[in-house]
Design brief:
Blueprint: E1 2-6, E2 11-15, E3 19-26, E4 30-38, H1 64-71, E5 89-92, E6 103-111, E7 127-136, E8 141-150, E9 155-164, E10 170-183, E11 188-193, E12 201-206, E13 210-215, E14 228-232, E15 243-249, E16 254-260, E17 265-272, E18 279-281, E19 286-288, E20 291-297, H2 301-315, E21 329-331, H3 333-336, H4 342-354, E22 359-362, H5 390-401, E23 404-409, E24 413-414, H6 419-423, E25 443-444, H7 450-466, E26 471-474, H8 496-514, E27 519-522, H9 532-535, E28 540-542, H10 549-560, E29 568-569, E30 571-572, H11 586-593, E31 599-600, H12 609-631, E32 633-638, H13 640-643, E33 646-652, E34 658-665, E35 674-677, E36 687-690, E37 696-698, H14 699-704, E38 707-710, E39 717-725
Parallel strand pairs: 21-22, 21-31, 22-23, 23-26, 26-27, 27-28, 28-29, 30-31
Antiparallel strand pairs: 1-2, 2-3, 3-4, 5-10, 6-7, 7-8, 8-9, 9-19, 9-20, 10-17, 10-18, 11-12, 11-14, 13-16, 14-15, 15-20, 16-17, 24-25, 32-33, 33-34, 34-39, 35-38, 36-37, 36-39
Bound molecules: alpha-D-galactopyranose (GLA).
Alpha-D-galactopyranose is lined by residues 333, 363-364, 408, 475, 477, 523, 525-526, 542, 545.
Length: 738
């Protein structure tokens, strides 16, 4: 494990427990990518350097730089000197020329991992970092490539810093975080795509010639695409095959791309989207890219997923709630929409408390004079008609009922019909002389400006100081358009999108530092900004406005491919779902929501006593078992997306002493089959008892022969099972199967 430099061969090797990443300096100048894959210890890998001339060049004819630059596997390719593939760096000089060629200059290996100024990034003490220095001598540009590893993870963390050490301003037109060139192995690429109420559905297709890009230009990561790509070798499954995952710790415009070139070289790149981006860099200034996370698994998709989960839990999410039991909440949005008042909320809270729910979240519509989505964003003070005693009396009354209070905010926005907008019309993002493109009757505040950020922060701080509020749902319900800031001159307007994201990060940083006990849940019109960047500030993110458990199977499968279950906001909705009208049994809605942070989004006062009693049982069960989901290892056993009939996942405690198995049957078949669900991650020699029964199974048999699941009656049915390892006769350790 660790980072090694082989002076003789000029090769750098980055080892994690199971993987190796390798690059080398070719001809004393060019930093070339040599290998990323299964752990490899041979120090003498000089034969991996590609030849200067590609095979097939005519005898004796040297085709020069263009052929070389156009085919070599560059670690950080630059535009303008012969690499015609998608490059990682495009620089325009003050004279308007776009040519850059990076030569290797030196390296250093550091203990620990440096922070990325202003950006969220993974952190941890037991880390090592390799920093490689490249330079374009003509521009005077220094490029630092950083690679970090933690001692307990198979992930490799990359970021890039560009420093202008020349005498003149340069303009960065593209500055991506990472690039990996590798030989084509007929990979498939899986991305996460969707829309509102259908986020992060997995889509797999072959990598073919040309470029395949997923990106965002909406100022946020978005519902549509996701800053993640997964390459899988032909036939790869959860348990076998080569798998490469790449993810960007960023919440704004991004680009992720595969490119298969004419010589069957595959290039994978990820970073801030160059579209709409231009960063002037004056002498002495630096630009830091967001962090890219690379994970390779030689044993299928499952290990890749679990590496991401552990990395994000152990090295990215800082909230004290990460491993803490979170309150079961009830949110009033789908229960009342804008039509509520203090009495109605207290009624809901009272019934909720009786069923074992612990927090009421008052959603949109409690402030200004907001009774629909046409006004008051920015006016963060209680609506006197709905809350005559203000937030403090509501919080007090809820406290008397034994309930905590959480509230909804949309801090980045302003309604044209608001006191804030009337006082500061220039605080909205806009292009002078052009009507702002409207979306949901609201404009976006210019977070690049310090005074705007201060107003937002002071408003939130005042609310939190005025009443006992335990939780904030930070929403963001529209994309960015009409990009312009009164604070940026024309030369710097191309910095806007990235500066907006930096402004958002600095605001949330202030909030979590000043109110460390606040439980923050990010949200973006459902799950439109569910990314590792936001997880640095909030331990949970609202996954989707769609709570229909059947649609959620797809959404949560795609989300959990990368992100820990403990980060997925998931609630029980009413039977006729508000997004698609589907009617499902209450227990199925609960079982699917229990895979995430768990709560309710319905009017509990309208439920029957039997239903409320059922909710009380779910709540008790959730508290009994939620630690397994928060801390354990996630295994995807089957996917309804693939088989059309049933979905199944398993979460095993880190000590393997207990596990949860969730089976959701989307379609009933007459003359049903009996399924043998092959489980994973168990102690082969241990015996496990199905809780609530005397039925005992050996770990070995559960993993090899499978758990016999009789199909359930009807569509959209489900079970959630808990198994516990039997103690051995001494009461210590596990009972061994003979
Ligand atoms: C967004 C959120 C919802 C709800 C509404 C309120 O759509 O995703 O959960 O808070 O806003 O307007």
């Amino acid at each position: 494990m660790g980072i090694v430099y082989h002076e003789g061969s000029k090769i750098f090797q980055i080892h994690t427990k199971n993987t190796t990443y390798m690059m080398g300096v070719y001809a004393g100048i060019h930093l070339q990518h040599l290998y990323y894959g299964k752990n490899l210890t041979d120090p003498d890998c000089a034969y991996l350097f590609p030849q200067q001339e590609t095979p097939g060049a005519l005898h004796g004819m040297k085709r020069g730089g263009v052929d070389f630059f156009g085919t070599m596997p560059f670690e950080y390719p630059a535009f303008g000197t012969g690499d015609f593939r998608g490059t990682a760096l495009t620089v325009r000089s003050i004279g308007g020329h776009r040519a850059c060629s990076l030569a290797y200059e030196g390296y250093r290996i550091m203990e620990g991992k440096p922070e990325l100024p202003g950006l969220p990034a993974t952190f941890g003490d037991k880390a090592q970092t390799l920093e490689l220095c490249l330079r374009d001598a003509v521009l005077g540009l220094k490029v630092l490539l950083r690679y970090s590893v933690f001692d307990d993870s198979d992930a490799i963390l990359r970021s890039t810093t560009v420093v202008n050490e020349g005498p003149e301003r340069v303009y960065l037109e593209t500055a991506l975080s990472a690039c990996i060139d590798m030989p084509n192995e007929d990979y498939d690429v899986t991305t996460l795509h969707g829309t509102w109420a259908r986020e992060r559905n997995m889509q797999k297709r072959p990598v073919t010639h040309g470029k395949l890009t997923v990106d965002s230009v909406a100022g946020r990561t978005g519902h549509e695409n996701h800053p993640f790509m997964m390459l899988t070798s032909p036939g790869a499954t959860q348990k076998q095959g080569d798998v490469y995952g790449i993810n960007l710790v960023y919440s704004g415009n991004f680009l992720a791309r595969t490119e298969l070139d004419h010589l069957e070289n595959l290039r994978l790149t990820i970073g801030v989207n160059p579209e709409g981006f231009e960063w002037p860099l004056d002498p002495g200034e630096r630009f830091d890219t967001p962090e890219a996370v690379l994970v390779y698994s030689s044993e299928g998709i499952g290990p890749m997923t679990r590496t991401f989960h552990d990395l994000y839990r152990n090295h990215l999410i800082r909230s004290p709630y990460l491993y803490r039991e979170r309150p079961i909440l009830i949110n009033n949005w789908e229960a009342t929409y804008f039509d509520f008042n203090e009495e109605k909320l207290v009624d809901i809270a009272r019934e909720a408390k009786a069923a074992g729910i612990e927090m009421l979240v008052m959603d949109d519509g409690w402030f200004g004079h907001r009774n629909n989505d046409e006004s008051s964003l920015g006016d963060w003070f209680a609506n006197p008609e709905k809350l005559p005693g203000g937030l403090s009396r509501l919080a007090e009354r809820l406290r008397e009922e034994g309930m905590q209070l959480g509230i909804w905010l949309e801090p980045e926005m302003v309604s044209p019909d608001s006191e804030l907008y009337r006082a500061h019309p220039d605080w909205a993002i806009q292009v002078p002389g052009r009507e702002i493109t409207m979306s949901r009757h609201q404009y976006v505040l210019d977070l690049t400006r310090q005074e705007v950020r201060d107003y937002i922060f002071d408003s939130i701080a005042a609310i939190l100081q005025s009443a006992k509020i335990s939780y904030i749902k930070w929403d963001m319900n529209r994309s960015l358009t009409d990009i312009g800031s009164a604070d940026l001159d024309p030369e710097h307007m191309g910095q806007f999108y990235h500066r907006y994201v930096l402004g958002l990060y600095s605001l949330q940083e202030r909030l979590v530092r000043q109110f460390p006990e606040l439980l923050l849940e990010n949200c973006t019109g459902g799950g439109g900004r569910f990314d590792p960047g936001m997880l640095y500030y909030s331990p949970q993110i609202w996954t989707s406005d769609n709570m229909d458990p059947i649609q959620r199977l797809l959404i949560q499968e795609g989300t959990a491919l990368v992100y820990p279950l403990s980060t997925m906001g998931a609630h029980v909705c009413v039977a006729k779902n508000h997004c698609n009208g589907r009617v499902t049994p209450l227990h199925t809605r609960a079982h699917v929501a229990m895979a995430g942070t768990f709560g309710y989004e319905l009017d509990i006062t309208k439920m029957s006593p039997e239903e409320r009693a059922q909710c009380a049982q779910f709540n008790a069960k959730h508290h009994q078992y939620s630690h397994i989901n928060r801390e354990g290892d996630y295994y995807r056993i089957a996917s309804a997306r693939e088989n059309g009939v049933y979905d199944c996942w398993q979460v095993v405690g880190k000590d393997r002493k207990e596990f949860l198995l969730t089976y959701v049957q989307v379609r009933y078949e007459s003359r049903p089959r009996r399924l043998q669900l092959r489980l994973e991650g168990l102690e082969a020699k241990a015996l496990y008892r199905l809780s609530g029964t005397e039925q005992v199974y050996s770990g070995d048999a559960l993993m090899k022969a499978g758990y016999p699941m009789n199909m359930l009656w009807g569509d959209n049915n489900s079970v959630l099972l808990h198994f516990e390892m039997l103690p051995n006769e001494t009461g210590k350790g596990s009972k061994i199967c003979k």
